[in-house]
Amino acid sequence: MTIVIDLPRNIAPALASEIEKESAFVSPYLERLKVASEMDSVAVELSDPSQETVVREKLDRFLGLMLRELPDFETKTFIHTERRDTADFETDVHRKMVERGWIHDYGRGRAALNGPALALLHYIDRTATALYHKEFAGAVERDFPALVDADLLWRCGYFDSHPNAVCFVGHVVEDFDAIEDFRIANADAEVVQMPPTEHIHMPGMCLNPAACFPCYPTMTGEDIEAEGRIMTWKGRVFRFESRNVSGLDRLWEFNVRELVFAGSDTFTADGRRRTLPLIEELAGRLDLECVVETAADPFFATISAAKSFWQLAQEVKNEILLPLGPWSDGSMKRMACGSLNLHGNFFGDRFDFKAGGESGFTACVGLGLERWVLAAFTQHGFDPGRWPSNVRKEIFG
Ligand SMILES: [Zn+2]
Protein backbone atom coordinates (compact mmCIF):
# COMPACT_ATOMS: atom_id res chain seq x y z
CA MET A 1 0.00 0.00 0.00
CA THR A 2 1.30 3.47 -0.94
CA ILE A 3 0.25 6.80 0.56
CA VAL A 4 1.23 10.20 -0.80
CA ILE A 5 1.85 13.17 1.47
CA ASP A 6 2.24 16.71 0.14
CA LEU A 7 5.10 18.74 1.50
CA PRO A 8 4.49 22.35 2.61
CA ARG A 9 7.20 23.58 0.22
CA ASN A 10 9.59 22.40 -2.49
CA ILE A 11 12.77 21.02 -1.03
CA ALA A 12 16.37 20.76 -2.24
CA PRO A 13 17.73 17.39 -3.46
CA ALA A 14 20.19 17.15 -0.56
CA LEU A 15 17.36 17.45 1.98
CA ALA A 16 15.24 14.98 -0.03
CA SER A 17 18.06 12.45 0.19
CA GLU A 18 18.39 13.07 3.95
CA ILE A 19 14.63 12.56 4.46
CA GLU A 20 14.64 9.30 2.47
CA LYS A 21 17.58 8.06 4.51
CA GLU A 22 16.31 8.97 7.98
CA SER A 23 12.83 7.58 7.18
CA ALA A 24 14.32 4.14 7.87
CA PHE A 25 13.93 4.93 11.57
CA VAL A 26 10.28 6.08 11.54
CA SER A 27 8.37 2.79 11.76
CA PRO A 28 8.99 -0.91 11.10
CA TYR A 29 5.84 -0.83 8.89
CA LEU A 30 7.32 1.89 6.67
CA GLU A 31 8.83 -0.05 3.79
CA ARG A 32 10.12 2.81 1.68
CA LEU A 33 9.83 6.57 1.41
CA LYS A 34 10.53 8.32 -1.86
CA VAL A 35 10.48 12.06 -2.50
CA ALA A 36 8.73 12.86 -5.82
CA SER A 37 10.93 14.20 -8.61
CA GLU A 38 9.00 17.50 -8.37
CA MET A 39 10.34 17.69 -4.79
CA ASP A 40 6.92 18.64 -3.41
CA SER A 41 5.55 15.37 -2.02
CA VAL A 42 6.59 11.98 -0.66
CA ALA A 43 5.30 8.52 -1.56
CA VAL A 44 5.36 6.09 1.33
CA GLU A 45 5.01 2.32 0.99
CA LEU A 46 3.56 0.51 3.98
CA SER A 47 4.03 -3.20 4.62
CA ASP A 48 0.78 -3.43 6.61
CA PRO A 49 -2.23 -1.24 5.58
CA SER A 50 -3.83 -1.68 9.02
CA GLN A 51 -1.00 0.41 10.48
CA GLU A 52 -1.70 3.44 8.29
CA THR A 53 -2.97 5.75 11.04
CA VAL A 54 -0.09 4.97 13.37
CA VAL A 55 2.53 5.41 10.66
CA ARG A 56 0.94 8.65 9.37
CA GLU A 57 1.11 10.12 12.86
CA LYS A 58 4.82 9.27 13.21
CA LEU A 59 5.47 10.55 9.69
CA ASP A 60 3.85 13.90 10.47
CA ARG A 61 6.17 14.40 13.42
CA PHE A 62 9.18 13.16 11.45
CA LEU A 63 8.53 15.42 8.44
CA GLY A 64 7.84 18.36 10.75
CA LEU A 65 11.30 17.93 12.25
CA MET A 66 13.10 17.39 8.99
CA LEU A 67 11.40 20.38 7.31
CA ARG A 68 11.58 22.82 10.19
CA GLU A 69 13.15 26.14 9.27
CA LEU A 70 16.61 26.09 10.71
CA PRO A 71 18.04 29.36 11.85
CA ASP A 72 20.08 30.76 9.00
CA PHE A 73 23.72 30.73 9.53
CA GLU A 74 26.48 31.62 7.24
CA THR A 75 28.52 28.65 6.07
CA LYS A 76 32.20 29.40 6.46
CA THR A 77 34.54 27.64 4.06
CA PHE A 78 38.00 26.88 5.40
CA ILE A 79 39.45 24.86 2.53
CA HIS A 80 38.49 24.36 -1.09
CA THR A 81 40.93 22.37 -3.21
CA GLU A 82 40.25 21.79 -6.92
CA ARG A 83 41.23 18.61 -8.77
CA ARG A 84 43.54 18.78 -11.80
CA ASP A 85 41.88 15.68 -13.37
CA THR A 86 39.30 17.28 -15.66
CA ALA A 87 37.48 14.07 -16.75
CA ASP A 88 33.94 13.34 -15.56
CA PHE A 89 33.12 11.80 -12.21
CA GLU A 90 32.88 8.00 -12.35
CA THR A 91 29.46 6.60 -11.46
CA ASP A 92 28.30 3.44 -9.68
CA VAL A 93 31.78 3.00 -8.23
CA HIS A 94 30.92 0.50 -5.51
CA ARG A 95 29.39 -1.97 -7.97
CA LYS A 96 32.31 -1.57 -10.36
CA MET A 97 34.79 -2.29 -7.56
CA VAL A 98 32.79 -5.39 -6.56
CA GLU A 99 32.94 -6.57 -10.21
CA ARG A 100 36.72 -6.16 -10.20
CA GLY A 101 37.02 -8.18 -7.00
CA TRP A 102 38.32 -5.11 -5.12
CA ILE A 103 35.43 -5.30 -2.68
CA HIS A 104 33.76 -8.34 -1.23
CA ASP A 105 30.35 -7.04 -0.19
CA TYR A 106 28.88 -9.23 2.56
CA GLY A 107 25.68 -7.17 2.55
CA ARG A 108 24.24 -5.37 5.57
CA GLY A 109 27.00 -2.77 5.53
CA ARG A 110 30.16 -4.83 5.72
CA ALA A 111 32.83 -4.77 3.04
CA ALA A 112 36.23 -6.43 2.66
CA LEU A 113 38.55 -4.32 0.54
CA ASN A 114 41.14 -5.91 -1.68
CA GLY A 115 43.67 -4.99 -4.37
CA PRO A 116 43.86 -1.29 -5.37
CA ALA A 117 40.92 -0.34 -3.10
CA LEU A 118 42.74 -1.71 -0.05
CA ALA A 119 46.07 -0.25 -1.21
CA LEU A 120 44.39 3.16 -1.48
CA LEU A 121 42.85 2.87 2.00
CA HIS A 122 46.31 2.09 3.39
CA TYR A 123 47.87 4.93 1.40
CA ILE A 124 45.34 7.45 2.75
CA ASP A 125 45.76 6.22 6.32
CA ARG A 126 49.57 6.18 6.09
CA THR A 127 49.75 9.62 4.45
CA ALA A 128 47.43 11.25 7.00
CA THR A 129 49.36 9.64 9.86
CA ALA A 130 52.71 10.80 8.48
CA LEU A 131 51.39 14.36 8.05
CA TYR A 132 50.12 14.33 11.66
CA HIS A 133 53.45 13.12 13.06
CA LYS A 134 55.40 15.66 11.01
CA GLU A 135 53.28 18.57 12.22
CA PHE A 136 52.82 17.40 15.81
CA ALA A 137 56.14 16.16 17.19
CA GLY A 138 54.62 14.86 20.45
CA ALA A 139 51.80 12.81 18.86
CA VAL A 140 51.69 9.23 20.13
CA GLU A 141 50.33 6.18 18.33
CA ARG A 142 47.53 4.45 20.28
CA ASP A 143 45.07 1.58 19.96
CA PHE A 144 41.67 1.12 21.62
CA PRO A 145 39.06 -1.63 21.85
CA ALA A 146 36.05 -1.66 19.51
CA LEU A 147 33.95 -3.16 22.33
CA VAL A 148 32.93 -0.42 24.74
CA ASP A 149 30.75 -0.13 27.84
CA ALA A 150 27.24 1.25 27.30
CA ASP A 151 28.09 3.47 30.26
CA LEU A 152 30.90 5.03 28.22
CA LEU A 153 28.48 5.97 25.42
CA TRP A 154 25.99 7.28 27.94
CA ARG A 155 28.69 9.52 29.44
CA CYS A 156 29.64 10.68 25.95
CA GLY A 157 26.01 11.75 25.33
CA TYR A 158 25.67 9.34 22.42
CA PHE A 159 22.21 8.11 23.42
CA ASP A 160 21.00 11.74 23.24
CA SER A 161 22.47 12.41 19.84
CA HIS A 162 22.24 9.11 17.90
CA PRO A 163 19.97 6.64 19.78
CA ASN A 164 19.03 4.97 16.45
CA ALA A 165 22.62 4.02 15.60
CA VAL A 166 23.59 2.15 18.79
CA CYS A 167 24.65 -1.52 18.53
CA PHE A 168 24.43 -3.66 21.66
CA VAL A 169 26.36 -6.89 22.04
CA GLY A 170 24.55 -9.93 23.43
CA HIS A 171 25.46 -13.46 24.45
CA VAL A 172 23.53 -16.60 25.37
CA VAL A 173 22.44 -16.36 29.00
CA GLU A 174 24.71 -18.34 31.36
CA ASP A 175 22.21 -21.14 31.82
CA PHE A 176 22.97 -24.79 31.11
CA ASP A 177 19.57 -25.44 29.46
CA ALA A 178 19.59 -22.28 27.36
CA ILE A 179 23.10 -23.08 26.10
CA GLU A 180 22.13 -26.70 25.39
CA ASP A 181 18.93 -25.62 23.55
CA PHE A 182 21.02 -23.32 21.40
CA ARG A 183 23.60 -26.02 20.65
CA ILE A 184 20.99 -28.62 19.72
CA ALA A 185 18.92 -26.21 17.61
CA ASN A 186 21.96 -25.54 15.43
CA ALA A 187 23.40 -29.03 15.35
CA ASP A 188 20.80 -30.42 12.93
CA ALA A 189 19.74 -27.16 11.29
CA GLU A 190 19.86 -26.27 7.60
CA VAL A 191 20.38 -22.60 8.41
CA VAL A 192 21.58 -20.77 11.50
CA GLN A 193 19.16 -20.75 14.43
CA MET A 194 19.33 -17.69 16.67
CA PRO A 195 18.52 -18.23 20.35
CA PRO A 196 15.10 -16.91 21.47
CA THR A 197 15.23 -13.32 22.71
CA GLU A 198 14.67 -14.39 26.31
CA HIS A 199 17.86 -16.48 26.13
CA ILE A 200 19.98 -13.55 24.99
CA HIS A 201 21.54 -11.42 27.67
CA MET A 202 22.85 -7.95 26.94
CA PRO A 203 25.53 -7.16 29.48
CA GLY A 204 25.73 -3.43 28.76
CA MET A 205 28.35 -3.62 26.06
CA CYS A 206 28.27 -1.83 22.71
CA LEU A 207 30.25 -1.64 19.51
CA ASN A 208 32.08 1.66 19.42
CA PRO A 209 30.23 4.24 17.26
CA ALA A 210 32.73 7.15 17.29
CA ALA A 211 36.46 6.57 17.13
CA CYS A 212 37.53 8.96 19.88
CA PHE A 213 35.20 7.78 22.70
CA PRO A 214 37.37 5.00 24.19
CA CYS A 215 40.38 7.31 24.59
CA TYR A 216 38.74 9.54 27.21
CA PRO A 217 38.52 7.11 30.17
CA THR A 218 42.26 6.47 29.81
CA MET A 219 42.86 10.02 31.07
CA THR A 220 40.54 9.90 34.12
CA GLY A 221 42.15 11.33 37.24
CA GLU A 222 45.06 12.83 35.34
CA ASP A 223 46.20 16.38 35.07
CA ILE A 224 47.55 16.55 31.56
CA GLU A 225 50.88 18.29 31.40
CA ALA A 226 50.86 21.92 30.28
CA GLU A 227 52.01 21.10 26.73
CA GLY A 228 48.90 18.94 26.16
CA ARG A 229 48.51 15.46 24.69
CA ILE A 230 48.10 14.33 21.09
CA MET A 231 47.09 10.79 20.13
CA THR A 232 46.37 9.17 16.79
CA TRP A 233 45.12 5.72 15.81
CA LYS A 234 43.02 3.76 13.36
CA GLY A 235 39.71 2.89 14.98
CA ARG A 236 36.99 0.50 13.91
CA VAL A 237 33.58 2.09 14.16
CA PHE A 238 30.01 0.70 14.03
CA ARG A 239 26.77 2.54 13.29
CA PHE A 240 23.45 0.82 12.70
CA GLU A 241 22.07 2.27 9.45
CA SER A 242 18.99 0.06 9.04
CA ARG A 243 18.03 -0.25 5.36
CA ASN A 244 20.26 2.70 4.43
CA VAL A 245 23.35 0.52 4.19
CA SER A 246 24.57 0.72 0.64
CA GLY A 247 28.10 0.77 -0.67
CA LEU A 248 31.27 2.16 0.89
CA ASP A 249 29.44 5.40 1.66
CA ARG A 250 27.19 3.86 4.29
CA LEU A 251 28.65 0.90 6.13
CA TRP A 252 27.66 -0.65 9.44
CA GLU A 253 31.35 -1.24 10.19
CA PHE A 254 34.14 1.03 8.96
CA ASN A 255 37.58 2.45 9.71
CA VAL A 256 38.49 5.91 10.93
CA ARG A 257 41.91 7.56 11.22
CA GLU A 258 41.50 9.55 14.40
CA LEU A 259 43.52 12.39 15.90
CA VAL A 260 42.76 13.67 19.40
CA PHE A 261 44.06 16.74 21.20
CA ALA A 262 43.66 17.04 24.98
CA GLY A 263 44.83 20.00 27.03
CA SER A 264 43.88 23.64 27.46
CA ASP A 265 41.28 25.53 25.44
CA THR A 266 43.96 27.25 23.35
CA PHE A 267 45.96 24.05 22.86
CA THR A 268 42.99 22.16 21.41
CA ALA A 269 41.77 25.06 19.24
CA ASP A 270 45.32 25.49 17.96
CA GLY A 271 45.57 21.77 17.21
CA ARG A 272 42.47 21.84 15.06
CA ARG A 273 43.64 24.99 13.27
CA ARG A 274 47.01 23.38 12.47
CA THR A 275 45.29 20.22 11.15
CA LEU A 276 43.34 22.08 8.44
CA PRO A 277 46.35 22.54 6.11
CA LEU A 278 47.19 18.85 6.61
CA ILE A 279 43.77 17.85 5.27
CA GLU A 280 44.38 20.21 2.36
CA GLU A 281 47.76 18.54 1.75
CA LEU A 282 46.17 15.05 1.85
CA ALA A 283 43.48 16.06 -0.66
CA GLY A 284 46.17 17.67 -2.82
CA ARG A 285 48.31 14.52 -2.92
CA LEU A 286 45.26 12.52 -4.02
CA ASP A 287 44.28 15.30 -6.45
CA LEU A 288 40.79 15.48 -4.92
CA GLU A 289 38.33 18.31 -4.92
CA CYS A 290 37.73 18.83 -1.21
CA VAL A 291 35.81 21.34 0.85
CA VAL A 292 36.01 21.91 4.58
CA GLU A 293 33.23 24.05 5.95
CA THR A 294 31.01 24.58 8.96
CA ALA A 295 28.58 21.68 9.29
CA ALA A 296 24.96 22.47 8.52
CA ASP A 297 23.14 19.19 7.87
CA PRO A 298 19.75 18.92 9.55
CA PHE A 299 20.10 15.32 10.66
CA PHE A 300 18.03 13.34 13.13
CA ALA A 301 20.55 13.87 15.89
CA THR A 302 19.43 17.41 16.45
CA ILE A 303 15.78 16.61 17.20
CA SER A 304 15.78 18.65 20.37
CA ALA A 305 18.34 21.15 19.23
CA ALA A 306 17.64 24.76 20.07
CA LYS A 307 18.88 27.75 18.16
CA SER A 308 21.83 28.05 20.51
CA PHE A 309 22.97 24.59 19.43
CA TRP A 310 23.15 25.72 15.83
CA GLN A 311 25.12 28.79 16.71
CA LEU A 312 27.47 26.63 18.72
CA ALA A 313 27.65 23.95 16.05
CA GLN A 314 29.05 26.24 13.43
CA GLU A 315 31.96 27.00 15.70
CA VAL A 316 32.61 23.47 16.86
CA LYS A 317 32.07 21.18 13.88
CA ASN A 318 33.87 21.54 10.57
CA GLU A 319 33.03 18.94 8.00
CA ILE A 320 35.28 17.48 5.28
CA LEU A 321 33.19 17.13 2.11
CA LEU A 322 34.33 15.31 -1.03
CA PRO A 323 32.23 15.87 -4.18
CA LEU A 324 30.73 12.83 -5.95
CA GLY A 325 29.26 14.46 -9.07
CA PRO A 326 26.13 16.49 -9.80
CA TRP A 327 22.60 16.00 -8.45
CA SER A 328 19.65 16.11 -10.87
CA ASP A 329 19.35 19.89 -10.39
CA GLY A 330 23.01 20.43 -11.28
CA SER A 331 24.17 21.18 -7.73
CA MET A 332 27.10 19.11 -6.48
CA LYS A 333 26.50 15.96 -4.46
CA ARG A 334 29.00 15.95 -1.60
CA MET A 335 29.85 13.20 0.86
CA ALA A 336 30.94 13.91 4.43
CA CYS A 337 34.27 12.08 4.74
CA GLY A 338 35.34 13.35 8.11
CA SER A 339 35.14 16.20 10.57
CA LEU A 340 37.25 18.43 12.79
CA ASN A 341 35.52 18.96 16.12
CA LEU A 342 36.03 21.05 19.21
CA HIS A 343 34.42 19.49 22.29
CA GLY A 344 35.14 22.24 24.83
CA ASN A 345 35.63 20.69 28.28
CA PHE A 346 32.68 18.29 27.84
CA PHE A 347 34.82 15.12 27.99
CA GLY A 348 37.14 16.59 30.64
CA ASP A 349 34.06 17.03 32.85
CA ARG A 350 32.47 13.68 32.01
CA PHE A 351 35.68 11.68 32.47
CA ASP A 352 37.28 13.82 35.13
CA PHE A 353 40.61 14.84 33.69
CA LYS A 354 42.27 18.21 33.96
CA ALA A 355 44.78 20.36 32.14
CA GLY A 356 46.81 22.71 34.32
CA GLY A 357 44.31 22.33 37.19
CA GLU A 358 41.26 23.23 35.04
CA SER A 359 38.79 20.81 33.47
CA GLY A 360 40.52 19.43 30.35
CA PHE A 361 39.54 20.50 26.80
CA THR A 362 39.55 18.13 23.82
CA ALA A 363 39.30 18.25 20.04
CA CYS A 364 39.25 15.46 17.47
CA VAL A 365 39.74 14.97 13.76
CA GLY A 366 38.30 11.81 12.16
CA LEU A 367 38.69 10.61 8.58
CA GLY A 368 36.23 7.97 7.32
CA LEU A 369 38.70 5.91 5.31
CA GLU A 370 36.27 3.85 3.19
CA ARG A 371 34.47 7.05 2.16
CA TRP A 372 37.78 8.62 1.10
CA VAL A 373 38.42 5.52 -1.05
CA LEU A 374 34.97 5.79 -2.64
CA ALA A 375 35.36 9.54 -3.28
CA ALA A 376 38.83 9.10 -4.82
CA PHE A 377 37.63 6.40 -7.26
CA THR A 378 34.58 8.55 -8.05
CA GLN A 379 36.74 11.58 -8.84
CA HIS A 380 39.43 9.68 -10.84
CA GLY A 381 37.72 6.55 -12.16
CA PHE A 382 39.48 3.28 -13.01
CA ASP A 383 41.98 4.47 -15.61
CA PRO A 384 45.35 4.61 -13.77
CA GLY A 385 46.43 7.43 -16.13
CA ARG A 386 43.99 9.81 -14.42
CA TRP A 387 45.59 9.34 -10.99
CA PRO A 388 48.49 11.43 -9.68
CA SER A 389 51.70 9.47 -10.37
CA ASN A 390 52.74 9.08 -6.70
CA VAL A 391 49.36 7.51 -5.84
CA ARG A 392 49.17 5.45 -9.05
CA LYS A 393 52.42 3.66 -8.19
CA GLU A 394 51.17 2.88 -4.70
CA ILE A 395 47.79 1.49 -5.64
CA PHE A 396 48.04 0.01 -9.14
CA GLY A 397 51.59 -1.36 -8.66
ZN1 LIG B 1 36.10 12.03 17.60
Layout of helices and strands, plus pairs?
Elements: E1 2-6, H1 13-22, E2 30-35, E3 41-46, H2 52-67, E4 77-81, H3 93-99, E5 103-107, E6 110-113, H4 115-135, E7 140-141, E8 147-149, H5 150-155, H6 158-161, E9 171-172, H7 176-187, E10 200-201, E11 205-207, E12 223-224, E13 229-238, E14 253-263, H8 265-285, E15 290-294, H9 307-316, E16 317-326, E17 332-344, H10 346-350, E18 354-355, E19 358-359, E20 361-368, H11 369-380, H12 389-396
Helix pairs in contact: 4-8, 4-11, 4-12
This protein binds zinc ion.
Strand numbers in spatial order across the main sheet: 4-15-16-17-20-14-13-7
User: Would you give the CATH topology of the largest domain?
Assistant: BirA Bifunctional Protein, domain 2
N/C terminus separation: 52 Å
Helical proportion, percent range: 25-40%
Radius of gyration: 23 Å
CATH architectural label of the largest domain: 2-Layer Sandwich
Number of strands: 20
Q: Would you identify the regions where 5 or more consecutive residues have pLDDT less than 50?
A: 297-308
Structural class: alpha+beta
Briefly, what CATH class of the largest domain? Alpha Beta
Mean pLDDT across residues: 91
- In CATH, the homologous superfamily of the largest domain goes by the name Bira Bifunctional Protein, Domain 2
Counted by DSSP, the helix tally is 12
Strand content: 25-35%
Question: Bound compounds, please?
Answer: zinc ion
- The best one-word shape is globular
What does the main sheet amount to?
8 strands, mixed
Which oligomeric state applies?
A: single chain
Query: How many distinct domains?
Result: 3
